[in-house]
Design a protein that fits this description.
heterotrimer, A alpha/beta (334), B mainly alpha (298), C mainly alpha (315), A: alpha/beta, 11 helices, 22% strand, globular, B: 298 residues, mainly alpha, 10 helices, elongated
Chain lengths: 334, 298, 315
């Protein structure tokens, strides 16, 4: 729990990732609807920002958009995108393709299907290393061995000649991490990196991620719905709801003093599960919103216990309530 | 990796039992065009005796290989017979043989596949071996064997095509029966002391119906093509009885003088097959929406 | 892998044995008395009885099969009833023609089908995809004899640029031999290309949607590499489908060869059945079954080699 004692945004730390007003639109530009609705966030080097929310809140899509990997039929736009100190002209595929794998990389949810089943681990490393680092074949193989060693894979030479289906999920996720970090990127997007793993493996993989971060210094954007994981890993937590960030705070502040009614509800569901003496689960009433038909004003208002008439007037913007703590709710502080 | 690629099943075993999902959904354009076309062709074949302007066998040596005219809307063939009339009558063996062959394949497929999937073990192994033999060589070889043993004719064509389609139907039924045999209500029926045949008919067969309909629709255009092809090779109906495939092979010798005797029957076959294919795609979307229309046909 | 190859070889031999029994039984039970056919309609019953004994037709069925099988293994299938030529040489000559035709047809089919499937798979939903899918559906719907006769009508009768039938004369130049091959080869290639395009579209399209493609893209690999990697997954099922098609072609394209009176195995098959030339029927059926089964065997081995799961089991 490093986050407890350190400020969330240290002054002077280099920016690994900065994005402003990110939009992901499904369907045609006119008549389509936004799945991510103006997300702005910053990740500094050596820091971890967690993006949390229910499924469908747009957190994974935000991560994919940063690499230009959103599904077909969607388009991405942003007011500004900066990766590793370099400004991108646009979010077009051509612009982002230069950065993918080198400056920004991603680790996915299910390691068992994330690697090509008909290529050996070595072949997959070779392709990536030769393309991104322009290494010769022997040099790439030597580097692959080192990279596997760095993520704690024993017997690397043998592993390189094996196929993904010969390995366990935990092993594959280590290898996946090694691949993603092979070009020492400035930013790593980790999308639910341990959800598909056993509990004991989860801890190992997260410890490994923290260790590699300490060595390489990349900024990590941790996409997760697992608040327990987030509490142990992240310096800052951004809570997403219906394609927008509704609350942002240093991890300790968010857990000790959640301000947004949605965040409060989200945390209550965790505490209920954590303490078996509680018999009534306070699941959030109502269903997640349909993004195609959002009401005017705050998207959470229909499910919110504090909803008031003014909530349905305008979309609330993020505003500071404490140092580094921002909330998009007109009712907070009233 | 299947043991033998020839046995690649056209319909994969699904994790859950299929359910009939028909009902109120509006007809798609595929179903409308395909179904409408099929109805028109069936009507034309049934009413051939009424709507045909001429007898299909009426010879008119003086007016051979004529182009379309008011007297002969599509012209005449090499013996001066009216092409339109011959095509209308020729639709009969095509539709009859095609559908009879698939019906045969479906019935045999159920008879083999139901016990095979329901009982498993020895019965299953025996049936599977038999089917492996049927798919060990191209379907046309089966047809030749039938013709060699039984001679040429419409019934032989039905048996030949039906035999070639049996494995597909049997495997489909088997895969569903296999799942159904383990379902709760079959276990319950067993516990209640129902006999195996009764369980198969009452509790397993209903699950098979919708996939069978889809498979029937998929096999129909293939069967029609096979029927026309066997007739083209002279292994089907005996002359002078008209059939679309035979018309093409007879007309081929006179291609230099007239194109009508082959172009019109070919056009009818192609349109008929396209209609059946559209109908099959439409039915597949309706009854089996989880699988793309394209996945099924080999 | 070796175990797999051994098991498949055993299966191949067993199926070949069953195939030979099937061919033998079919011929045995075919209508028409071979002795009668051999001697003609004027033969007396006494002559027929002698001929039956000479042909070994009065022995037990197992005995007859063993005699017959021994002869088959010595490549002795007797003489054709119609031409009097040895069946073996007749069949081999015809197979040569079929092989020549099939090579051209398969090359054409691959050249046409693979790129179409690739384009359709990589541009899902585009007008090109729609057009290619329509071509594939039509290529599978139009009966081969219809396609063949239409090609004859257009290129041989109307434009007079291609011969309508035959294979030319023996000893002709390669170019003039090819001249006779184009139309039948295109007739065979179009449905082949249609099946191929359809399969590549489905398999590669599916592979391109797999998570490992997203991973490869996230690692910055160029589009060409990403597609090549997906292709290595899609090609495994495609080989199987291609193999079945090739096996069918080699076993004799009955209809196409008949349309063009092309003197290959398929045409010979149809001719021998129509004239009840049983020795030749035996020959073509045996050769067809053997070739088809052999192609399937090779396909299984190739697929096995392409599939790491199977390859790894031996290590």
């Amino acid at each position: 729990m490093r986050a407890v004692t350190e400020p969330a945004t240290p002054v002077g730390a280099a920016t690994a990732l900065a994005v402003e007003r990110l939009r992901v639109t499904l369907g045609p530009r006119t008549g389509g609807h936004d799945l991510v609705r103006g997300v702005s966030l910053t990740v500094h080097r050596h820091r971890t920002v967690a993006l949390v929310g229910e499924s469908g809140s747009g957190k994974t899509l935000t991560g994919l958009a940063l690499l230009g990997l959103t599904p077909p039929g969607t388009s991405v736009a942003a007011g500004r995108l900066q990766i590793g100190g370099e400004e991108l002209a646009s979010c077009s595929d051509a612009d982002l393709a230069r950065f993918r794998g080198r400056r920004i990389a991603m680790v996915f949810q299910n390691p068992m299907v994330a690697m090509n089943p008909v290529l050996t681990i070595g072949q997959q490393f070779l392709q990536v290393l030769r393309h991104n680092l322009a290494l010769s074949r022997p040099a790439a193989r030597a580097r692959a061995r080192d990279l596997l060693g760095a993520v704690g894979v024993a017997d690397a030479p043998r592993r390189l000649d094996q196929y993904p289906f010969e390995m366990s999920g935990g092993m594959l996720q280590r290898i996946m991490l090694a691949l993603a970090l092979s070009a020492e990127p400035d930013v790593l997007v980790a999308d639910e990196p341990t959800t598909a793993l056993d509990t004991t493996l989860q801890a190992q993989v997260m410890a490994l991620l923290a260790e590699r971060q300490a060595q390489l210094g990349m900024g990590v954007l941790l996409v997760s719905h697992d608040l327990g994981l987030v509490a142990g890993m992240a310096d800052e937590v951004d809570v997403m709801y219906a394609g927008r960030i509704v609350e942002r705070a240093p991890t300790a502040d968010l857990f000790s003093a959640p301000a947004h009614p949605y965040t409060q509800a989200l945390l209550r569901t965790v505490r209920d599960i954590a303490s078996p003496t509680t018999t009534v689960l306070s699941a959030i009433p109502g269903a997640p919103p349909q993004l195609a038909t959002l009401p005017a004003g705050c998207s959470f208002a229909p499910r919110c216990p504090l909803a008031a008439p003014e909530c349905t007037v305008a979309l609330p913007e993020l505003r500071a309530v404490a140092a580094g703590h921002e909330v998009a709710c007109v009712r907070v502080g009233q | 990796m299947t043991a033998s690629p020839v046995t690649a099943a056209p319909v994969a075993v699904r994790a859950t039992l299929p359910r009939v999902r028909a009902g109120v959904r509006r007809l798609s354009w595929r179903e409308l065009v395909g179904g409408g076309g099929l109805v028109a062709f069936v009507l034309a074949a049934v009413l051939a005796g009424v709507v045909s302007p001429w007898s299909p066998d009426a010879l008119a040596i003086g007016s051979r290989l004529q182009g379309p005219s008011t007297a002969h809307l599509l012209g005449t063939d090499q013996l001066g017979r009216d092409l339109l009339s011959r095509i209308l009558y020729g639709l009969r063996p095509s539709l009859e043989s095609g559908f009879a062959a698939i019906a045969l394949a479906a019935v045999v497929g159920v008879l083999l596949g139901l016990p095979s999937g329901y009982f498993g073990s020895v019965i299953d192994s025996i049936v599977t071996r038999i089917l492996d033999l049927l798919v060990a060589w191209p379907a046309v070889f089966l047809a030749l064997a039938v013709v060699l043993l039984l001679g040429t004719g419409e019934l032989q064509v039905i048996i030949a095509i039906g035999l070639a389609e049996v494995p597909v139907f049997s495997r489909l039924v088997r895969s569903i029966a296999l799942l159904a045999a383990r379902s709760d209500h079959v276990v319950a029926a067993k516990a209640a002391g129902a006999s195996a045949p009764r369980i198969m008919v009452r509790h397993v067969l209903p699950f098979v119906v919708a996939p069978l309909v889809v498979q029937f629709a998929i096999a129909a255009p293939q069967a029609l093509v096979a029927e026309a092809s066997l007739n083209y090779l002279g292994l089907g109906t005996h002359p002078p009885a008209p059939s679309l495939g035979a018309m093409v092979s007879e007309g081929q010798a006179f291609l230099a003088y007239a194109a009508g005797p082959i172009v019109f029957p070919i056009a009818v076959i192609v349109v008929l097959v396209v209609c059946l294919t559209l109908l099959a795609d439409g039915l597949q979307d309706r009854l089996d929406p989880h699988r793309g229309a394209e996945r099924r046909r080999p | 892998m070796w175990r797999f190859a051994l098991v498949r070889s055993g299966q191949l031999l067993l199926t070949l044995l069953l195939a030979s029994i099937a061919v033998f039984l079919v011929i045995q039970h075919a209508p028409g008395d071979p002795a009668q056919v051999q001697l003609g309609l004027t033969a007396t019953p006494a002559q027929i009885a002698v001929e039956r004994q000479k042909l070994g037709l009065d022995a037990s069925i197992l005995h007859r099969y063993l005699i017959w099988a021994t002869q088959v293994l010595h490549l002795n299938l007797g003489k054709s009833f119609t031409t009097g030529l040895p069946v073996t040489s007749t069949v081999v000559t015809a197979f040569g023609y079929t092989l020549r035709l099939d090579v051209v047809a398969i090359v054409l089919g691959l050249v046409l089908g693979l790129p179409l499937g690739l384009v359709a798979a990589l541009r899902r939903g585009s007008w090109a995809d729609t057009a290619i899918s329509a071509f594939a559906a039509l290529g599978l719907s139009v009966p081969v004899f219809a396609l063949g006769t239409l090609l004859v009508l257009v290129f041989a009768v109307h434009f007079r640029v291609m011969p309508a039938a035959g294979a030319g004369v023996p000893g002709q130049s390669l170019l003039s031999a090819l001249h006779f091959l184009w139309l039948p080869a295109v007739t065979l290639a179009i449905p082949f290309a249609a099946v191929l395009a359809r399969y590549v579209r489905i398999e590669l399209g599916e592979a391109m949607g797999e998570p490992y493609v997203l991973t490869a893209r996230s690692l910055g690999l160029p589009r060409r590499t990403v597609i090549a990697n997906a292709w290595r997954n899609a090609v495994i099922p495609t080989i199987t489908v291609m193999g079945i098609q090739v096996g069918r072609l080699l076993a004799g394209a009955l209809i196409t060869e008949t349309v063009f009176s092309y003197p290959g195995i398929g045409y010979l098959t149809v001719q021998s059945i129509q004239s009840l030339d049983y020795p030749v029927v035996e020959g073509v059926l045996l050769l067809g079954a053997a070739v088809f089964l052999l192609v399937m065997f090779v396909v299984d081995l190739v697929v096995g080699l392409a599939n790491p799961r199977l390859r790894v089991q031996v290590r």
